[in-house]
Fold each of these.
Amino acid sequence: MRLQKKQLKDNIKKNYAFSFIQNIDLTRGIWMIYLASKGMTLTQLGLLETIFHLTSFFMEVPTGAVADIYGRRVSRIIGRLFSVISVIILLFADSFIWFAGSFIITALSYNMESGAGDALIYDTMKEIGQEDQYMRISGNKEMIFQIGSIISFLLGGYLATKSYDMAFVITIVIGMITFLYAFLFVEPTTGKKSSEKSNRTHFFDQLSESIKVLREQKRLGFLILFSQFIMSFVTTVFFYLQNYMKGDGYSEASIGVLYAVTALGGALLAPQVYKIENIIKERGILLFMPIITTLCLFGVALSKWHFMFFIPMALAEGLIFIALGDYINKVIPSENRATILSMASMAFSFFMITIFPVVGFIGDQFGLKVSFFMMAIVGMLLTAVNSWTLLRNKN
C-alpha cells in the first residue's frame, strides 16, 4: 500500500517532466508559415484547422470514455504515438489532402491526451489525499510547460530560417522520447470502472452519466463554455499572428522570440495564479480576464505594435486555464472526469470550427487586420453581456 502511494506520488514529478518534453515541439510557432510556403492560402489554412477541430469535436467524448474505461495511461500512450505519426506525414506531404490527413491524426492525438492527462493527475492527487493542492501543482506544470514553449519557439523559429525539415525531424525524435516516457506512469484506482459490463455498455453508460452531471451542475457547464470560448479566441490570434507578422516583414526567428517572451511571461505567472485567485476570487477572474482579452484584441488589430498586445492577452488566457481548470475538476466525479474534460475540449473545437475558417476567409478577402478588428468587436459585445450577467447575478 505504501509502495503504491509512493508510485502514485511519483506521477506528479513524472508529469512535470512529461509536460516539458511533450511541449518541445519546434513546429508550434511556424506551421502556419510552413504550410503557406507549401502554397496554402489563408482560407485553406482555415479549412485545415477546421478539419482538425471537426475530428476533435466528434472524437472527444469517445476518446474521453476510452480513458475512463481503459485507463488514462493507455490513452496518453496512444495519443503520443498518433502525434509522432502526424508530424511524419506533415513533413513529407505536399498536397492539401495529405495535410488534411495529418491534421486528422493530430486531432486524435490531442483527443487521447486532452481528458486523460488532467484526469490522471487529479485522480492521482485525490487518491493520495492532496487534491486541494491541484491548482498549485497545475500552476507548476504550466510553468514547466511554458519553459518548454520558450525553447520550442526560439529554436523552432531559428531553424525555420535555415531549414523547416530540420525543425520537423527534431520534433519527431522528441515525440518518440515522449511516447516511451508515457509508459512510466502508474494508473490510479480512483474513478476506475469495473470490467463486469461490455465495453459498448460501458461507453454509453459513461456518456449518459457525464451528460447527467452537466445537466445537474449548471455552474460547471458555464465554466466550461466560458473558458473554452476565451481560449478559442486567443488560439486563433496565436496562429494567424504568425502570417500577420510574416506579412509585415518579420522573420520566423523574430516571431519565435515574441512567442518565447510570451511563454516566459506565462512561466512566471503560472505558479502565482493560486495567489492571484485568492485575491480576486472566481468572480474577479470571470469579470476582468475577458475585458483584458478584448482590449488586447483591439491593440492587435489597430496598433503599429500589434505583437506587444498579444503577450497580456495570452497571459490572461493562461490564468483562466489554470484557475478554471481547478474549479471544474473540483465538481466533476472521478469516474466521469476524463469524459467531461473531453466534453470541454469538444466545446473548444466547436468554437474553433466556427471562428477559425471565418477569420481566414476574411483575411484572404480584406486582410488579417480586418479579421482581428471584427474579432475585437465580437469580443466587446460578448464581454459586455458577460459583465452585465455577472454583476446582475450575485450567485
Amino acid sequence: MDIKTKTMGIKTVEQKQIVTFPEGLFGFEEYKRYAIIESEYNPFIWLQSLDDEKLAFLIVDPFVICTDYEADIDDESLAKIGVKSPEDVIVMAILTIPTDGSHITANLQGPIIINKKNNLCEQIILSDNKWTTKHDIINALKTREGK
C-alpha cells in the first residue's frame, strides 16, 4: 500500500506496519490509523497517520534512552488492546522536537503500548511520577554513553 507521508513523500508500507489506536492518541483522538516506518535517524521510528498525511510523530524505544525505564502497565489497558502475554507488548515513547532541533524530549510518562499480535495500540499514563512528559533524551543518551 502506498501512503503519503509528512517527511518522506510517498512510501510503500505492508499491512504488518499498520497499527490502530481505537481511542487515538491524546490530543489526536480522531486519528486512529498509523503506519510504523523506519527512520533514517536510528533508533527513531516514524508513526505516520494514515488519516492525515501532515500528521506524524517520531517515536523511540524508551529502554534505549533509559536503561532503568519501567512501564508498569495496568491490566485494563492491556486488555483493551487484547494483550494476553507481556511478550506481546512493544512500548514506545513519542518525541517532541522543537523547530530549532534543540532540547529533544521524550514522553516517558505517556508511552504507547503496541500489541504486536494484532497491531492494536493505546497511549497510557503511567502512575509512577519518576517519569516525565519532557524527558531530555540528549542528556540521557550522553549520560548512558558516559560522556
